């Protein structure tokens, strides 16, 4: 998953880039880029960067997998917890009611993740892989 962008500002350990609007997007459908206008990226390779350079930004498969798991697994566990808890306390009720309670827990867990999730740190998210020009 690769994106191109122009370096706008270099702070101590933080590099802000403006994504290239013509390049293919790596999954956010350019919604984050349009809202924030700047991406916060890391430079773990220690490339000699200057303001105005066009660089290639990449997100590692490991980081992407970890982010996906931390978003998708908790709602599934929420559903399972709601289903099991309902069956434990209201054993005489049908499975439909237990499934409905599980769905409520699923959406509640998903909302909590949405509400409290923070953006990834530069070292765990986007990194500059090479200087284009």
Give a quick summary of the entry.
With 133 residues, this protein is α+β, with helices and mostly antiparallel strands. The chain has 3 helices and 5 strands; from the N terminus they run E-E-H-E-E-H-H-E.
Question: What does the model show?
Answer:
This protein has 133 residues and is of the alpha+beta class. The protein is built from three helices and five strands. It has a five-stranded antiparallel beta sheet. A hairpin with a 4-residue loop joins strand 1 and strand 2. Helix 2 (61-89) runs antiparallel to helix 3 (95-116). It is rod-shaped and about 70 Å long. The two termini are 20 Å apart.
CATH structural fold name of the largest domain: OB fold (Dihydrolipoamide Acetyltransferase, E2P)
Strand percentage lies at 15-25%
Task: Give the low-pLDDT segments.
Answer: none
Query: What is the count of structural domains?
Result: 2
- Shape label: rod-shaped
Neighbour order of strands in the largest sheet: 3-2-1-4-5
> What is the β-strand count?
5
State the name of the first-level CATH class of the largest domain: Mainly Beta
Q: Work out the radius of gyration.
A: 21 Å
What would you call the structural class?
A: alpha+beta
* Series of secondary-structure elements, N-terminal to C-terminal: EEHEEHHE
- Mean pLDDT reading: 79
Helix fraction by DSSP (H/I, runs of at least 4) = 40-55%
C-alpha termini separation:
20 Å
Judging by the overall fold, what is the CATH architecture of the largest domain?
A: Beta Barrel
Major beta sheet summary: 5 strands, antiparallel
How many separate helices? 3
């Amino acid at each position: 998953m690769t994106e191109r962008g122009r370096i706008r500002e270099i702070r101590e350990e933080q590099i802000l880039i403006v994504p290239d609007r013509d390049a293919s997007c790596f999954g956010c459908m350019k919604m984050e880029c349009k809202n924030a206008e700047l991406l916060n990226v890391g430079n773990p390779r220690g490339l000699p960067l200057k303001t105005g350079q066009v660089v290639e930004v990449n997100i590692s498969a490991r980081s992407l997998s970890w982010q996906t798991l931390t978003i998708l697994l908790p709602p599934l566990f929420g559903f399972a917890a709601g289903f099991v808890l309902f069956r434990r306390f209201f054993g005489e009720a049908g499975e439909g009611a237990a499934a409905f309670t599980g769905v409520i827990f699923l959406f509640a867990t998903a909302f909590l993740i949405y509400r409290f999730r923070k953006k990834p740190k530069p070292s765990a998210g986007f990194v500059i892989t090479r200087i284009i020009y």
